[in-house]
Write a structure and sequence with these properties.
2 copies of one chain form a homodimer.
Chain A (H helix, E strand, L loop, with lengths): L3 H48 L6 H28 L6 H16 L1 H9 L5 H25 L3 H33 L1 E2 L1 H24 L2 H10 L2 H16 L3 E2 L4 H57 L11 H30 L2 H16 L4 H15 L3 H11 L9
Antiparallel strand pairs in A: 1-2
Helix pairs in contact in A: 1-2, 1-5, 1-6, 1-10, 2-3, 3-5, 5-6, 6-7, 6-10, 6-11, 8-10, 9-10, 10-11, 12-13, 12-14, 13-14
């Protein structure tokens, strides 16, 4: 019959299994970061290729497609590994469901590229397709962060997700700004949308700063070239700082090049984030294994000590050993509770994104909107009311009770 | 290479594995309910046996011990099953850690009974030992409720946990009241403690009513004998309604008998709760398996359709099949999100208990209190300030930031 000590060890083994799961997820997140970066570059090159009617970046685009394929293979290999590794993983249903969406998107990439090559798509259509695929990849990272059971690893994943999401907003800003400068004019709605992309980026990087490890923050700081940042701010001010009106079309190329330098610098921070995450997982696994070993040794000592008849003949353990066993149990309970508390605190930061997702779902169900339309409607409300997206989302959710046709 | 459809199916299989896990947990919770009831009776009989210096209930106590042993065997068998079934279970570390505490308590039962039989313990010491063991068993049920991934099953488990916890407060009220009447007097502190037990019960049963299925609520309503309830209220008023003072010691036996009738009636409701939980699990598993079958058939049809060259030669699927696949993906994503939202809402009710546990842990760490002392300190604060336990706990947690020596 199973004993208390064996469950104490089983609890520890569960922790180790969860940590090993997280280490695998960490590898996947790293591979996704590389693929997202490759897709962001491909999106940018495709945009310029399409808007120049095929005259610019034709060669670079093809080269980038080849790089993308390599990154894609690595992500697919990680997916394969995920599938065979665990059908019982925490949060498995949601993670796998997100992976299915990504694979569907990746399967459609060849067709998307053919249509770009033959210039059958507008710049806008191509952008939407790439944005969607990247959003699907980031959703996988989000589920990974949301399912982590170790607070330190959860912090690292939250920092990583927010950095990746912020970088993607920067990528969208690159495309949006390049388009705006290229057309030679910007209207008030365009300025608002641009500002929104800047604010969304800042929100993400703020969370990143709150959760990232000190060493990662140092690398991030070092990656910020002051000259580049100052020039980015100057061009933003030219486009969005004054009244709507004409823009110098010649600035399009230098804007594009500047943002590309900034985004490539971010990529190097992502590598450090991924490395930090891997070290953290290795360290936590080694620590948990060591603790398991110590605990097993202590339980063995307790068990062999219990073979001596104690001062109280009827007791399974003598009073001294009894106290040691109780100590082990209490220590484990306290540790797990402290971990749970810290985890709840870290996860709370993920709830903002969840509120936006929920509000989107609500609009899709009640207003028969597509996902894209629902997001735009929320963003429009946020811009009109000059409020944060999450505040608008929460207002929409608060209204949910009075909307008709809502199931219980 | 793994495909999107295979991950869609893997996501569904994850759900089924989680549901099967929950069904096993449901069986365990049922067995725990039976053991808790048997221990509650044994505690009551032991109390009367000890306070009558061995003259009353000696035979009944031994009979009850035998019944308890049977119930204990069933719980241990369920624990064995749990251990072998899954080392990757969601929340496994916490659940297993709780189980280790329970097994440690069960291993000490033989010694506890010997000391009761030889009257080496006070009534109070015996009560504390049984209360602790039962609290450990209820903590296992709490972890089960907290780890459920299906909203309907989570609701049923939350209802069940609160019913069991309410029943345990009723058991403690039985013991406290019997003792108070037997001593022939009650002071103000005793009255306050009694009222606290009544309020705690009512809080639990309120949550039970909010979450239980309509059929279970009907059974619960039918189990409430109005004559018994009226008499319980009358005796409560005699003891706690007026000023502190003398009590009729003759009322001890009838109080004990009344509460026993009420608690035994609750036991029958618990059986219905367990049955309802089992049916729910079976139904959800059958449903998920059916959906998996349908989904697989639809994906097979899509795949065979895709073998025909579609109107667009380069597409993996034709436009019609493409829409079906997207529909499947979106439907799954929406369903999982709706489930996640509902689950968050159900789980929020468990957070009150978590706040109390956290506040207790804080007091233990900063005031060098034992768990029992920490709980009493919280309860005393609640009574002094005439506030709910959870409000006091949250006030303590809010103070945590300014307490010295708190790690980050």
């Amino acid at each position: 019959m199973t004993s208390g000590p064996s469950f104490l060890l089983a609890a520890r083994q569960c922790e180790i299994a969860e940590l090993e799961d997280l280490a695998r997820t960490g590898e996947l997140v790293g591979a996704i970061g590389r693929l997202v970066h490759a897709l962001q570059r491909e999106r940018g090159l495709s945009n310029v290729f399409l808007s120049s009617h095929g005259s610019r970046f034709a060669g670079q685009r093809l080269q980038q497609v080849a790089e993308c394929r390599l990154a894609e293979q690595q992500v697919r290999a990680q997916f394969d590994h995920l599938d065979t590794a665990s059908s019982q993983a925490r949060n498995g249903a949601r993670l796998f469901s997100r992976v299915a969406v990504v694979l569907h998107g990746l399967d459609g990439l060849a067709q998307l590229r053919d249509r770009v090559a033959s210039q059958q798509l507008s710049t806008r259509e191509a952008t939407v397709a790439y944005v969607k695929l990247i959003a699907g990849l980031l959703a996988v990272v989000f589920e990974a962060a949301d399912s982590a059971t170790d607070p330190a690893i959860s912090r690292a994943l939250v920092a990583m997700f927010n950095f990746m999401q912020g970088k993607e907003f920067a990528g969208q800003e690159r495309a949006f700004g390049a388009g705006a400068f290229a057309t030679g004019a910007i209207d008030a709605a365009g300025q608002q949308q641009w500002r929104h992309l800047v604010e969304s980026q800042q929100g993400c990087f703020q969370v990143f700063c709150d959760f990232a490890d000190a060493e990662v923050l140092r690398v991030d700081q070092a990656s910020r070239d002051p000259a580049v940042l100052a020039e980015v701010e100057r061009l933003r001010r030219i486009a969005c700082g004054g009244r709507p009106g004409l823009l110098d079309a010649n600035l399009s190329a230098s804007w594009y090049e500047l943002l590309t330098r900034r985004i490539d610098a971010m990529r190097s921070v992502e590598d450090v984030l991924a490395l930090h995450l891997r070290h953290l997982c290795e360290q936590r696994i080694a620590q948990a294994r060591g603790e398991l070993r110590d605990q097993r040794a202590m339980l063995d000592a307790l068990a062999s000590g219990a073979l001596d008849p104690g001062p109280e003949g009827t007791a399974a353990y003598g009073p001294h050993l009894e106290r040691s066993m109780l100590g082990l149990l209490q220590e484990q309970a306290c540790r797990l509770q402290a971990m749970g508390d810290e985890l709840d605190a870290v996860r709370a930061t993920l709830n903002e994104r969840k509120a936006v997702e929920r509000a989107k779902g609500l609009l899709m169900a009640h207003r028969q909107m597509s996902e894209d339309e629902a997001y735009k409607a929320l963003r429009q409300m946020a811009m009109n009311q000059n409020r944060r997206l999450v505040d608008v989302a929460e207002a929409v959710l608060a209204l949910a009770e009075v909307l008709p046709g809502r199931g219980r």
